[in-house]
Amino acid sequence: MGLKHSLIGQFPWLLDRVNYVEQLAKLLPHFASKRNPWKIPITSRDLYDAIDAKEQRDYYNDRKRLCRSGGRNIWATEREARMKYLEPIVREIDGLLAVQDRVSILEVGCGNCINLIELTERYGDRIVLKGIDISSGRLNVARDYFGDRLVGIETWVESITDPTPDAQKAQYDLVFSMHCLEQIPYAAVQAVAGLWDRAISRVVMIEPVWEYARGAQRLKLVRDDYIRTLLPAVRYLGYPIQHEGPLGFESSQKNQSSLIILTKTDTRGE
Ligand SMILES: C[S@@+](CC[C@H](N)C(=O)[O-])C[C@H]1O[C@@H](n2cnc3c(N)ncnc32)[C@H](O)[C@@H]1O
Fold it and tell me: Rounded to the nearest whole angstrom, what is the distance from the C-alpha of residue 156 to the centroid of ligand 1?
């Protein structure tokens, strides 16, 4: 824990200002660089193909992060933070399970597969879980790391920006993404349509949203070339938004998640 986190971390407003200056200092040299930093799906795939099981190790070693909850900075383990992110998904699954015996779920950009493990351990055979990711490397690393724990959970390589195959259309009660669409800055419309096409009932996106971002995050969204047009894309497509807003819990002080829920068919009869 550095000085910044131990001392300044006690004052959220101060940390926001420090993060802002830090992001600005990182952004400016970016434009001077000869490298073309803007992402297409293949860039994301190549980036993620190069990652080992560090995310899983950090997660199960209870690494702590400086998070924000209800406007206060707090330390939380990776697992505590992820469980907070999973809360809206759990709420949707519980709602669906109240009216049907089994729920089929697809995670788009399942990557390290930690969400799939957490959900299968929570719900067992009351859910049928599947995951897609653009990076075969991520899926192989997860399969090696989790071994038997992923048995029964089908995962395969697919980009959510490609046209939805007919066999995938309206196949899952719930389709969700968590920090996957953030990697797709220039195909937001195709990506959101891809989630929607695969869903029967609900789409849940836990992603950075420009409109709800603080200053430092906006700079980061530009510098890292993360998505900046998620809400406009949803609105352009005309999909009904059941909920949009900040999550209330932030596992990252520089790249907060927001929540967007779309209702396709209300099987719960509300
Ligand atoms: C930040 S990781 C998030 C992984 C996981 N959802 C989680 O919450 O830990 C983003 C993931 O999205 C995947 N991804 C990026 N672009 C994608 C695309 N076009 N289609 C499917 N997956 C994609 C990446 O390969 C990566 O595994």
Answer: 12
pLDDT in tens, 138-166: 999 999 999 999 999 999 999 999 999 99
DSSP assigned state of 78: H
| SS3 call for 163 | coil
The CATH number covering residue 211 comes to: 3.40.50.150
- Identify whether the C-beta of residue 183 lies closer than 8 Å to the C-beta of residue 226: yes
Amino acid 172 reads Y
- What is the per-residue pLDDT across 68-102, written as a single tens digit (0 to 9) for each? 998 889 999 999 999 999 999 999 999 999 999 99
pTM (two decimals): 0.93
Ligand 1 centroid–CA 195 distance in Å is: 13
Whether 56 is in the pocket of ligand 1, judged by its Cβ within 6 Å, is no
Residue type, 236: Y
Distance CA(203)–CA(233), nearest Å, equals 14
The number of domains in the chain is 1
| Residue 127 within a domain | yes
d(CA 59, CA 62): 6
Select from 51, 82, 78, 63 the least CA-distant residue to 144: 51
For the CA of 47, the closest atom of ligand 1 is: 25
